[in-house]
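Morning!

This is the sequence you dropped in the shared folder:
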Amino acid sequence: MARTSEPAYGWAAECERRFGTHPIQVCHEWNTAVHMQECEAESPKRAFTRDELQAFFDHADDEVSRVRGRGRKGWLPAFRDAMLFKTAYAYGLRRNETRMLDVADFGRNPEGAEFGEYGVCYVRHGKAKKGSPPKRRSVLTVWDWSAEILDQWVSEVRPAMRHADGPALWPSERGRRVGLQRLDSRFAAYRDDLALDPVLDFHSLRRSYVTHLIEDGWDALFVQQQAGHDHASTTSIYTCVSSDFRTRTLRRALDGTVEAALRPVRRA
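The structure's back. Tokens below.
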């Protein structure tokens, strides 16, 4: 142990005598990488509960019926928005990833033939690190209803949109692709109509996707790859499991421990 009374240079001299050199700093600002990617999750943000999410989707569907029942043309954009929100959740997409989807960004999954043409979602505009191009990833379809709503949108409803001749999956009534401001305003309107927690935002759909997969028992590495996270720690930030899930997890662990303790020992 070093004596606090001994000068620091004394140890440098001792290293020189014993080893012919002394400790030097090897890591500097100019030769180390800087972590530029900000954490995507902020402390007050959270996922939807399952009941909140169902209420949100039901409200979006009801809005389509209300507008259509009044004989107004606005039911097409309302239908688009309802499908868009569900798709964002179904594939754990960020806001711009969802907005920039094209019709051609889906394909078959040989291991999931039941999903037809919507077995894989190819994300071309993923979140990029500073100075890098958009990050691409493929997200496998995990729920049957995901393929069903996409097929209905593409084959039955989208052709009636004014700009359906373009590549965008979500064309706008005024342009080739729906705008981010439109997504934010429609999301906020639905959330406020239901008096849901104001901390819920579009990104909460992505947090809900990660959380619900984890709660449903999907492999953590699979969920990480679906979300496009480089590190498991990032995925863990997204995971907002419910107290009920924690209780059930604890109960299974305790029951398993008790069962193992009471199991008769087999003698050779």
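Headline: The chain has ten helices and three strands.

More detail when I'm at my desk.
O.
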